[in-house]
Amino acid sequence: MKLKNNLSKLVLFFLIITLIPLSGTAKKKPAKDAKEKPVYVFKVETEVKRTPVKNQYRTGTCWCFSTVSYLESECLRLGKEELDLSEMFVVRHTYPQKAINYIRLHGKANHSQGGQSHDVIDQIRRYGIVPEEAYPGMNIDEKRHNHGEMTPVLQGILDAVLLQKGARVTPRWLEAYEAVLDVYLGKVPETFTYKEKTYTPKTFAQEYMSLNLDDYVELTSYTHYPFYQKCRLELPDNWTYNENYYNVPMADLEKIADYALKNGHSLVWDGDVSEKDFSGGRTDKDHGTGYAVVPGKDWEDMTKDERSEEITKPVEEKEITQEMRQKTFDNLTTTDDHLMHVVGIVHDQTGAKFYLTKNSGGIDQAYKGYVYLSRPYFLLKLTAMMVHKDALPPEVKEKLGLK
After folding, report:
1. Domain 43-399 is found in CATH 3.90.226.10
2. Is the pLDDT of residue 13 over 90?
3. CA 145, CA 138: separation in Å to the nearest integer?
4. What is the pLDDT of residues 222-281, one digit of tens each?
5. 3-state secondary structure 9-32
6. What would you report as the CA-atom Rg of the chain, rounded to the nearest whole angstrom?
7. pLDDT at 33 over 50
8. How far apart are CA 311 and CA 3, in angstroms?
9. What is the mean pLDDT of residues 139-156?
């Protein structure tokens, strides 16, 4: 009986010491549904019509997603119904152009996944375009785009062709290259039916979309070229060596963006998103903060504590100058990492201006797939933008000689 009582006490003792820390932990654990106070509260000044956010997922095709999104908005601006255009149709036709360029330049050219807004315009002009339903461009038994396997296979073909030192290149390599594209993306349709009417990709672009592709211009702002003249922007993803970027003063970039957005136009923003204060930044929580800023103090000048400090209120930012733009471009701290579709102007609780920007990473993000670019970030990190020529302020349009 004594042994039984001792065992009972022992069991009770172990239960007590086991439950005490558990109950203590439960008291300290915060509620899962507790909401943090947002750092930024944005109020919309103006925004344009646009189509839903898409997901480029594991591809380097932001140039296509952003520009196609922009063209979808253009259709809405012109009174057409909402369109869901196929990005991969454009990508499928762009790759062979890159490959030919790569072979002709003996491998000394860019054959990466990246590109520029004019690549989309160029391919639509050559081949037309189709709705997403006519060409999803995803023949890999997955639900989202993934070019992680396709791109090295394509690169391997080109490098194998160039391995033939001094030997003649056969006329068959491009067929092999395009066959790989067809395997991964699918064969492009020669004709398709949309809204009970049959189109070719070209007639769909010309008759259904009916956009004048000559109306779209790209702009930049750097002092190593004269202002209000065309130039070739030295970006790796400008693989066609396009020389039709209009170079304007930095102040005009902001003037153009604001004039466009306040008059029903949107624009494509090409720039650098590698900064620690872009979206995720120092306070990255699951899916990023959803905003991009240029803090008054540079990252390398911050102490360890400053770098880890949680941001709880709007950041005081630098005032951007033309000289700063040029310096960061020349020292490669501003590069063309990403293109996005700018669709509005908003202001934070202090009155500071931000640009409402549609990204292409799906809706599982801080602002359902949108990013807020502060005015300083927009101006400093922009390498190029695309707009309709009618979105230019009259005085800028006149200086550029556009009608």
Report:
1. no
2. no
3. 6
4. 999 999 999 999 999 999 999 999 999 999 999 999 999 999 999 999 999 988 878 744
5. HHHHHHHHHHHHHHHHHHHHCCCC
6. 26
7. no
8. 61
9. 97
**Amino acid residing at 232:** R
Query: What is the spatial distance between Cα 269 and Cα 336, in angstroms, rounded to a whole number?
Result: 10
CA nearest to 386, candidates 71, 60, 39: 71
pTM above 0.85, yes or no: yes
Question: Which position has the token pair 């033309």?
Answer: 322
Helical residues (DSSP H) of 48-110, grouped into ranges: 62-77, 87-104
Which among 154, 131, 136 is positioned nearest to 201, based on CA atoms?
131
CA dihedral defined by 231, 233, 238, 240, rounded to 10 degrees?
Answer: 20
Question: C-alpha distances in angstroms, 330 versus 222, 318, 375?
Answer: 10, 19, 21
Q: Is 239 helix (H, G, I), strand (E, B) or coil?
A: coil
Judged by phi (left if over 0) then psi (alpha if -120 to 50, else beta), residue 257 lies in alpha
Beta strands in 208-297 (DSSP E): 216-220, 229-231, 245-247, 267-271, 278-279, 291-292
The pLDDT score that the predictor gives to residue 346 is 98
b (16+ CB within 10 A) / e for 76-98? bbeeeeebebbbbbbbbbbbebb
